[in-house]
Design goal:
Elements (H helix, E strand, L loop, with lengths): L1 H28 L7 H11 L9 H24 L16 H12 L9 H4 L2 H31 L9 H27 L9 E5 L4 E5 L5 H9 L20 H26 L2 H26 L4 H5 L17 H13 L15 H12 L10 H21 L4 E2 L2 E2 L2 H27 L1 H4 L6 H16 L14 H30 L16 H25 L1 H7 L5
Antiparallel strand pairs: 1-2, 3-4
């Protein structure tokens, strides 16, 4: 009963957020929100730009790539010289070159994959000045790309799609910073730790052992970790620890925050293109897939672990191994699916301890392209790529040139959409094949057989999708996995962003074609079903063979116990 009440409350709250946050974001990016103009204008002056100086898609993409490259270099340098910087009460040494590269690529690409334990590797300065900064910047970049692409649909015969510097400035000042600050207060008020005092030591007089407990400026990092669909935690145990996720309320708010912006952006899309029905259609596709994945994963985790059951131990509360008793099996599964479906990577339990079918839910949530609802911005622009492929297929069915929102979808647009949709599967499958083919790659998994293969597949899928969640078991902090993981994250981010921006630029140049009796409807249930079908078919055709070697065969191998 408690799980269904949680779901109902979440649905109602997200419904309200979809309407009002979505409308607010449209006003922000169309320049109708100015309450921080006294900060915003000096930033533009410092950058040598203004809202009136719009950019072509090539200039927009160039600014984004240059900014991201500088961000990677900035983060890398801080990590490399961490031992010589202030705010290092733990006296931690500087981070190695391979791990610094992986971590810099991770946080700049909104992946937040962590091949390290935060409390034993990163100083307070690194956590605040490098990693938390990127937790604001990287989601702003993703949202900016989505807005730029949407402008391609809303504009007619336009050579420009906005200004990158203006978009990320408005996103950070008017959306991310205010919301993260408010929820940071709530997290700290609930008990999330927020201090610069360093570690605390306690002596247990019963057994004579002294325990050192890591702490730090955690609470406010936690709010942007979830809101920006980042997922990188201050502590190694992430949202399973009470220092990051102290109560049932913070656990619920974590789920809400990581879903809020990705879902609300569909309303922003609808309002910017002048058709809320089209935004609602994209939302429906996201919600249906998300609901199905929550359903079968929660059901899977509410069953006995087949291996544990084979040992003669039967639980009445589901698969609790590796989960916090504060949250239970179903609420843990809900956060897990919300996390792996939104490019977040947060975890309040051990994903390696999930049942094979539960792990399948987490893994396939990423393999669908993370569009259900996906990350901040990345979910919307990737969903639009799938929508255009669906429009193309629908146009072939009725024998007409495909159209979406009055824009003709021709060869150039279909090629860009296809490229953007297939980049991630190619990156994940190729790099996974390399990892399992080399001895240095096969040395990483803790387990042998299908489970060990799943550990490798999950890690590369997580990084290639810019998710950042870890299945566990894989020793990732090696030169091999740090380098190939960093490459996977960079390709998974920018090899999709560039086609998305190019697509936005191509659409902005087009005029709108009036509707006719033969126009294929793209705002009705049939189109929603077509989009869902495209997502499932692309995901299934590309990943089913790999899944058959991992969680599927592992689940089937346990059937002999029953």
């Amino acid at each position: 009963m408690g799980f269904f009440l949680t779901l109902l409350t979440l649905v109602v709250l997200l419904g309200v957020t979809w309407r009002y946050l979505g409308s607010y974001m449209e006003a922000v990016f169309n320049g109708r929100v100015h309450f921080l103009g006294f900060i915003e204008k000096p930033v533009y002056k410092l950058l040598g730009t203004s809202p009136s100086q719009e950019q072509t898609w090539k200039r927009y993409a160039s600014a984004l790539v240059i900014f991201s490259a500088v961000s990677i270099a900035f983060t890398y340098v801080i990590l490399r010289i961490q031992g010589s910087l202030p705010l290092n009460p733990q006296h931690l040494s500087s981070v190695g070159s391979a791990l610094s590269f992986n971590t810099s690529a991770s946080f700049v690409t909104n992946t937040n994959w962590q091949n390290y334990g935060g409390e034993t590797t990163m100083s307070y300065f690194s956590q605040i000045g490098a990693l938390t900064v990127q937790q604001f910047v990287s989601p702003a970049v993703g949202i900016a790309v989505a807005i730029a692409m949407v402008r391609g649909f809303s504009r007619r015969k336009s050579a420009t799609i906005g200004n990158f510097w203006v978009d990320i400035t408005r996103c950070m000042f008017y959306i991310l910073l205010p919301v993260a600050f408010v929820f940071g207060i709530i997290f700290v008020g609930q008990g999330a730790v927020e201090t610069l005092a360093g570690t605390a030591s306690f002596h247990d007089v019963l057994n004579g052992v002294t325990q050192t407990i890591a702490r730090g400026p955690i609470g406010f990092m936690e709010s942007i970790k979830q809101l920006g669909t980042n997922g990188g935690g201050f502590l190694n145990a992430n949202s399973a620890t009470t220092f990051e996720n102290p109560t049932g309320l913070t656990n619920f708010l974590s789920i809400y925050l990581l879903l809020a912006i990705p879902f609300a952006l569909t309303y922003t899309f609808g309002k910017m293109v002048g058709s809320i029905r089209h935004g609602r259609a994209l939302l429906a596709a996201m919600v249906i897939l998300f609901g199905v994945w929550v359903g079968f994963t929660s059901y899977g985790e509410h069953q006995n672990n087949p291996v544990v059951a084979a040992a003669g131990i039967h639980s009445t509360v589901g698969n609790t191994e590796g989960k916090e008793v504060r949250f239970g099996d179903t609420s843990s599964a809900l956060l897990g699916i919300a996390s792996t479906s939104t490019s977040t990577g947060s975890a309040n339990g051990s994903y390696d301890s999930y049942t094979p079918i539960g792990g399948l839910g987490l893994l396939t949530g990423m393999m669908l392209g993370e569009v259900t609802p996906g990350g901040t911005g990345s979910g919307l622009y990737t969903m639009l790529l799938y929508a255009l492929i669906a429009v193309f297929i629908g146009g072939l069915m009725i024998g007409r040139t495909p159209e979406y929102l009055g824009k003709k979808i021709q060869a150039r647009e279909v090629k860009l959409a296809g490229l953007g949709a297939l980049v991630m599967p190619m990156v994940v499958l190729i790099i996974t094949a390399i990892a399992v083919s080399l001895a240095v790659g096969r040395a990483g998994p803790l387990n042998a057989g299908p489970h060990g293969f799943t550990e490798i597949l999950y890690a590369i899928t997580s990084q290639g999708n810019n998710n950042g969640s870890a299945f566990g078991g894989l020793t990732g902090n090696t030169p091999f996995y740090n380098v190939i993981g960093g490459i996977a994250m960079l390709l998974g981010r920018f090899a999709i962003i560039i086609p998305a921006l190019a697509l936005g630029g191509a659409l902005a140049e087009k005029d709108v074609v009036p509707e006719s009796l033969g126009t294929f409807r793209t705002d009705n249930p049939m189109f929603v079903g077509l989009v869902i079908g495209v997502i499932l078919i692309i995901g299934g055709l590309t990943f089913f063979p790999a899944l058959s070697l991992g969680p599927i065969v592992e689940q089937l191998s346990h059937t002999r116990f029953f």
